[in-house]
Amino acid sequence: MVVGILEREKQTDRLFFALSDATRRDIVTKTLDRKCSVSELGRQYPISLTAVQKHVEVLVDAGLVSKHRSGREQLVRGEVDQLRRAHELLDELETVWRARLERFEDLLNETTGKERE
Question: Which residues contact 11 (CB under 8 A, 6 or more apart)?
Fold first, then answer.
């Protein structure tokens, strides 16, 4: 049970680490509409092809894109389901923090004698 929780946390960490970089977010965005080759992506950024390949590998590891070989090219496709997962996780965090803020507001109102609006 604990192993499953730890693995899920690692997957979440990989997901948000991958999304923390602007180049990687841009790669995901570009590959959601259509498949792009790694070399095509490499021409779109002022960094080396090797750096683009490393960004793609981080995204693959996080499940945000998938890679498929077509002849000599490696095609990259964005995975919308994993983006939905990120959205769901952020929604969960928002719910938790809103509840905490409401409890904090209630506590402040109790100590100051004010009622909640």
Answer: 62, 63
